[in-house]
Amino acid sequence: MTNKFFQLIGGDADIGSSKLFWIGFVIVVVLFCLYPTQVSEFRASNVAYYLLNIPLGLGIALLWGYCGVLSFGHVAYFGIAGYTYGIIAGNMAGNAYGPMVGVLGGLVASIIVAGVFAYFVFYARVREWIIPILTLVLTLILETFLGQTAGYQWRVGSVLLGGYNGMTGIPAFQIGSFVFMGYSFYYFCLIIVLACYVGLRMLLNSNFGQVVIAIREDPLRTEMLGYDIRARQWLVFVLSAVLASVSGLLYVQWGQYITPSQVGLYAAALPIIWAAVGGRTSLLAVVIATIVLNWVTYTLSSQGNQAAMVIIGTALVVTMLFFPRGIVIMVAEWLGQISNRNKPVDKVSAHE
Amino acid sequence: MSNGIALETRGVNKRFGGVVAANDVNLRVESGELRCIIGPNGAGKSTLFALLCGIQRADSGQIFIHEHDVTRMQQFKRVRLGVGLTFQTNRAYQELSVKQNLAIPNPGLSHTSERHELAKERLEIALNGFDLDPQDETIAGELPHHKLQWLEISMVLAGYPDLVLIDEPTAGMSRDETDRTADILKELNANGLTIIVVEHDIHFVKSVAQKVTVLHQGKIFMEGNVADVTADEEVKKIYLGHAH
Amino acid sequence: MEVDALALSLAYQLGTNAAFLFLAAVGLIIILGMMNIINLAHGELMMIGAYIATITHHAGLPFPLAVVASFFGVAFFGAILELTIVRRFYGRELGALVVTWGISLILGQGTFLVFGPFMPAIKIPGGSSSYGSFSYSHYWLVLIAISIALIFVLYWIYRHTSYGLQARATMQNAKMANALGVPTARVYTLTFSLGAGLAGLSGALLAPTSTIAPFMGQQFVAPAFITVVVGGATNVISGAVGSSLILSAVKTPIGMALGAFSGTVALLVAALIIIRIMPNGISFTIQKYLDRRRNKKA
User: Fold this and answer.
1) What's the burial of C76, exposed, middle or buried (CB within 10 Å: 0-12/13-18/19+)?
2) Can you tell me the ipTM of this complex?
3) Do A225 and B87 touch (CB under 8 A)?
4) With contacts defined as CB-CB under 8 Å, which chain A residues touch C99?
């Protein structure tokens, strides 16, 4: 049982499976655990924001990097989950179970929209370029819709959708009477992010994950081995939408507001950039890129820099031109080569 | 496998634009047969395989696999009836390891337990005969061409089929490699695997085939044993006619 | 009389919606059909076309000439994009999508930084007439006419010019065409440049009907891409025409009854349903129908 666990977590569906890697991994996790004890609640909260975006990035890595299906519109599920949570938890304000029901409702709403959408595209077996386009169109339409919901007539129960100013006063998450704010929210994010990473890594090392990778490599060959690839792609799409929803839920619990721009073009570009720059075929590379790039954009925008989108766009173009497999992955492989230089035959050199 | 019809087509037609790729094809392969399909380039051999597997849909006619009507069945469901296919251009997963290539097919997708045991034996025969190790971490793309062909055949067998369609297995192989392929296929066939092979190499056909079907312009031109077919003047003519 | 007027008005609405969809999509669909590249910077190329037209027009150039200037200006810009970036992504559909998206972000925000949030609008040229209780903008009638003319011009280019012949050969089999002496690299540059130029032309033509702003390209993204998805890439011209007509027939009544936003949602829903039935788009279905008819004759 434990053996199986270690096999799944340590397999080669992601970079890093050596003992040294796992020691480093544990050290980094411990450092993240200790971080809040050294800084103010405000700074811990900033880092919590970087962390809460990770599931969204992981969702894109799973879908694009491992399954070969590109979505430009996963922020739609981020938004759907966030808004639904806001509506439900807002209407149940004062009720300790409100946030829990809100989380459930947000996930269900995302799953329904993603499931219906994915049914149409995958069961039609459309060409691969159609999916990114339609996902983008979906999220832009959602933005347009939410943007025109200003005014008192656009309310659900007691919660106003709020048009371009967005929805405000969204309740924080709570279990029983314990409300997750500041430091505690930081740890809440850290646990969820760790669970998402480890869970995904195990999934991808399992037979299910291997078939997902096989679909990316050659859909027809995989189908001719007896797999219903439409059902697999559907499931992976919905799962990645759930990951995007997790980020959306954490986001509204963190800032207690959400605006339509969270499902707009600029927001939609960000997870693609994290995945491309980090290296979409590695979960860990995307995690690292998500943290670093969020820190960069946060720093830029807090300095009032208006060129953020130009810089981000340039980063994307440069990565696609010169580091098509991702910067973090290339660095990791380079490190792997150095540490394995003295061994004559090993797995890393076999991968080259 | 004992008696019964492994595969049958009734009046299958298919055209692409103005090209007739299958013209009233009536093919019948019994369980346990090793059938070769030959014919000049463009005779419709690969199209026939695509129609049998469901990658292409017939314009008209019916297709039966193990006496199930599969004419309108999705391709992965046909595979689950116990059919395997290798492609004309090798489609092993070149970016993945040999180990992964052999682990991806799922033997549990269909089948009763007695078929299961037989199929398992056949996989062992192939792996030993082709000298492939299911724990090998080598990236498939680094294998030499003939090994890659053998890998794809073994992958298909790892799905535990009882009927396999093999499209030009020996293209690009040396004489020794071709002979080895022929030997293994014969051994697999002796263990109950029904095999249909599309092949150009007449040396290979002579060494394996029990019965040969000649396709020409999408039509079944002739069917019979190897000696008769290769001696036939008309068959020689269509081959030569296309060569010049 | 009133029934006539209503029918005429409906026809006019259908025509303007179809013309809008066709103009929004034509540059995109040409690049897709010939090169298998999805240009996500399409909306921004239209925006640049609108900016060139606005700036030159306000500088004194007559509007028709400003439109022509937009075509050539954006075509030139498109050629540069192809030569420097896009050509590295042939055969990598998803890579091309992502890189052109990066380009679109740079162009949108870059324009904002250089020109600010708004440009003075262009007045809609020409007046309007009325029949019954409905009125008709002359400019939109001209746009419908231009769309029809464009269809014929494109058809003529592909059928009767040496570029068209080379482009069709390249589309069918680039390697073979290259071996036979077709300069495929130049054909790709020209095709991308033509598609970009048409995006610029459309952006300029639609400029008087829109606010001129750095992110105006976004409003064309949804309609243009839906038109392309529904049209498919089998036959560029029949796909663009068939798809804009069908989608206009969906959008017009719903838009008239429930408002513009519902019309756009209806477009997306229609696209999802149409691709479920025809995964390769309308142009593929048309092509198959034509093939079958030809086979019956033969």
Assistant:
1) middle
2) 0.90
3) no
4) 316-317, 320-321
